[in-house]
Amino acid sequence: MAYDFTAAEKKWQEHWERSGAFRTEDGSARPKFYCLAQFPYPSGAGLHMGHVEIYTYADIIARFKLHQGFEVLHPMGFDAFGLPTENHAIKEGLHPAIITERNCANFRRQLKDMGFSYDWSREVTTSDPAYYRWTQWIWKRLYEKGLAYKAEVPVNWCDTCRIVAANEEVDAEGLHERCGKPTRARRRSQWMFRITAYAEQLLKGLEELDWPESSKKAQRDWIGRSEGATVFFGLAEHEGRIEVYTTRPDTLFGATYMVLAPEHPLVGRITVPGERAAVKAYVERAAGRSEFERGELNKEKTGVATGAYAINPVNGERIPVWVADYVLMSYGTGAIMAVPAHDERDFEFARVHKLPVIEVVRPEGAAPSTLEQAHTGEGVMVNSRHGDLDLDGLRQREAVAKTIAWLEAKGLGQRKVNYRLRDWVFARQRYWGEPFPIYYLENGAAALLDDGDLPLELPEVESYQPTDNGESPLAPLENWIRFKDRQGRTGRRESDTMPNWAGSCWYYLRFMDPHNSREFATLERQRRWGRVDVYVGGTEHLNLHDLYSRFWQRALFDLGLVAEPEPFQKLLHQGMMLGPDGSKMSKSAGNVVNPDQILVDHGTDVLRLNLCFMGPVEANKPWSEEGLFAMRRFIGRVERLYAEHEAWEEGEGELAARIALHRTVKAVTADMERYRFNTAIARLMELLNELQRQVRRGRKALEAFAVMLSPFAPHFAEEMWERLGHGGGITRAPYPGFDESLCAEEEVEIAVQFNGKIRLRAKVPGGLGAAELQARMLELPEVREKLAGKPPLKVIAVPGRLVNIILGGG
RNA sequence: GCUGGUGUGGUGGAAUCGGCAGACACCCAGGACUUAAAAUCCUGUGCGGGCAUUAACCCGCGUGCGGGUUCAAGUCCCGCCACCAGCACCA
After folding, report:
1. How many C-alpha atoms does A198 have within 13 Å on its Cβ side?
2. A397 CA vs B37 C1’ separation (Å)
3. A259/A261 Cα distance (integer angstroms)
4. Region A711-722 average pLDDT
5. Residue lying closest to nucleotide B13, CA to C1'
6. CA closest to B12 C1', residue
7. How far apart are CA A395 and CA A309, in angstroms?
8. How far is CA A783 from the centre of its chain?
9. pLDDT at residue number A810
């Protein structure tokens, strides 16, 4: 009887649902395993191959852990707030909630057709008021802790669409994704998160995580910790001082000018009358340019002099103060001391604007130099002596320490650690997001909604289009904006909404306790499920979602609201599914592979096997049509193995089969633990080849094979399991164990090399030590003949592998 | 520019520690079964040569390129090249 995948998939999916096969028990005594794949944004296009890939990997891990006897938490939900839905709603004239429901239903159907082992009773949707009630609640806690604040920051304004573009809608060149026209910076007061307050913790916390080293490094670099000093420069003709941050206080004697960012508050005050027009023009031009434009490479460094002078604290020199946009207001103090001799950017600027260059670090043994380029490397201090501070002759480390000590003693500066990480703009001028549970009283003070008034639901609106003045579509809704609070005061609600990262910052917590209407998740449940043991997802959100979640988790941990300081213990990154031509799947390239169609033509098990067999989880893999047929053949061959009842016998079968079985179990188990699915399948194929050679096949071997295959081809494995006489339910059948003594080779082939070249092979019993192996090989007639009575110069014997005989001469 | 990753047969990819390169598949070729085809099964399959007769066998070369260390290098070291990804004036 041939295997009918369509019928089998339907049959077993119904069986799993009916029997509650994947219902997770919070109170079970089994050890826990939390397996999570990044939940999808339910777009109108439905599941694409990338989704299928990531959810397949997670499902294989979850099912493997079920076989190993874990209580597995493997939930699924939808990250449903966001712009595409809103844009779609505008186009179709339907409410975003309706579009969302439609898209979720479609995703849910597709995911169910794939037979994934989710506990669907835990499904959550971030745009559901019962969910975002808690997103708002958590935001309140973070606000109360002082981590949320309002500040004036730029938004991306598109003049063409007359709309605020979210950062996700703007590409690297600052072009609006929808119209392809440039966006510009427009300043606006909006909500922020003080993620920088957690910079050090987020950095240190990485140490305890089991993430790929490259991912840890990406976050480390993003946080960008640097050590240096703040230094105060007095002003020659003005009150006050300029504070700068530098990582090179040792080069203070080389500072020949200073630069303020165009937005720096001192610019207006210190600019001399003669330079005001030029400075004003420069600052205005900079203000209209987005960060993208300013960051453009290979452009000449621009700037204007303010006409004011600062005093270098180490030697009292008067140095000019400039304004230039290569200094960013958002990093450090927004002002720098420029040391052109030892900083490439300052050097370039100094050359363009004819500013002096003073060498203070000289490479060891080098002659004094007029410097054709900045020397940023090591060296010995020169030209660095004045008054009671003498750095000459010191190496960099000592010079830094000595300078900082000197500055601190004089009150002219101090040691300082700085981070590249910026505070997080947590606001959108759009409709389809969580409203902020905050409002403003007539006196301007902000007030929080009571917890009891949550969720603050989105109102119905006529138009989802943001307004021309850059406000959200909620802003014109006076009926909603204006309200009387519990104390009878008139308040105006915040009209911005939260960005679509909000709901995903904590969804992994909600899965632990999804129906709780009193808490977002009890500590008891959190202790039960702990951290996500393996989190499957792409690298593209590493410095966004993955970092944001860590920040929320740590902040909530400090508030005693969560049980763990870190959310994701292990990260598993899947590679990209490429089109059959090896390039990125895209509609324009016409190489998109539709998973729905493959399900119809080949079934989900074959699709899963093909995805896994194509290559390692982390690698980008071109889609293989041929592979699909290969996996069908594989399934067909296995099916025939289980059809030939007359070849079965009780037990594990012949010795050769037993040895093959135990070796396979050992190897496949190791592969599964390391997520090496492609080689695990290859080993199952090898075992299949061996079993096919056997005249009599042990039932035990067939059972073990079915269980090992089950994570990859669950429907098919259930079918074979049933043929073996079991009732339904391979999903929790124990994973096979192995006997180490059967895994050892009893006979091995040894390669015999002369001078490193293989000249013959010989079989010897396994387990021979180096000395005995060597002795045996030298006895071989072929070897004696080659040696012709002369003793070898040297012999290297590697047990189980080879013997290398080194002959003298040529 | 900086950082990280990748580079292995006609193709996808294997190869814990430096120890028989190419597991497992795909493709292709030949064969069996068949009236025939499909399906299935079997055999072969890195390149070049000894060897224009098959088989067995033998020799040389071979993991992006060029050097090096080592008895032994896909694996380690130095210098390049190509592609991919992330960051991109962070003082």
Report:
1. 27
2. 81
3. 7
4. 96
5. A615
6. A614
7. 30
8. 57
9. 42
Q: CA–CA separation, A664 vs A673, rounded Å?
A: 14
Phi, then psi, of A541 in degrees rounded to 5: -105, 15
- Report residue A301 as tokens: 């460094």
Residue A621 CA to nucleotide B82 C1', Å?
19
Spatial contact of A252 and A337, defined as CB atoms under 8 Å apart: yes
Name the nt closest to A748 by C-alpha to C1'. Answer: B20
How many CA atoms lie less than 13 Å away from A316 in the CB half-sphere? Answer: 5
- Distance of alpha carbon A61 from alpha carbon A501, whole angstroms: 26
CA of A684 and C1' of B54: distance in angstroms? 37
pLDDT at A521 over 90: yes
- For the CA of A805 and the C1' of B51, the distance in angstroms is 31
The helix-helix angle for A5-19 and A96-113 (nearest 10°) equals 110
Contact A183, A175 (CB under 8 A): yes
Pairing of strands A534-537, A32-37: parallel
Helix (H, G, I), strand (E, B) or coil at A20: coil
Q: Which two tokens stand for residue A543?
A: 């410095």
Beta strand segments in A387-475, E: 389-390, 413-419, 424-425, 438-441, 446-448
Opening angle at CA A530, ends A524 and A533, nearest 5: 155
pLDDT digits (tens, 9 = 90+) for A320-341: 999 999 999 989 999 999 999 9
Q: Which is it for strands A577-578 and A621-622: parallel, antiparallel or unpaired?
A: parallel
CA A34 to each of CA A303, A476, A570, A661: distance values in angstroms, whole numbers, following the listed order: 55, 45, 11, 30
Q: What is the CA radius of gyration of chain A?
A: 34
Are the CB atoms for A116 and A21 separated by under 8 Å?
no
Q: Minimal CA–CA distance to A209: which of A523, A547, A557, A670? A: A547
A142: Cβ contacts below 8 Å, ≥ 6 apart: A148, A193, A552, A555
β-bridge pairing A361-362 and A304-311: unpaired
| Other Cβ atoms within 10 Å of A201 Cβ, number | 17
- As for the ipTM of the complex, it is 0.94
Nucleotides on chain B that have an atom closer than 7 A to a protein CB are 3-5, 12-16, 19-21, 23-27, 39-42, 58-60, 71-73, 84-91
The pTM of this model reads 0.93
In this complex, the residue with its CA at the shortest distance from the C1' of nucleotide B4 is A214
Distance in Å, residue A617 CA to nucleotide B60 C1': 39
A276-290, A633-647, A775-789: least confidently modelled range: A775-789
Nearest nucleotide from residue A806 CA, by C1' atom: B71
Distance A192 CA to B85 C1' (A): 29
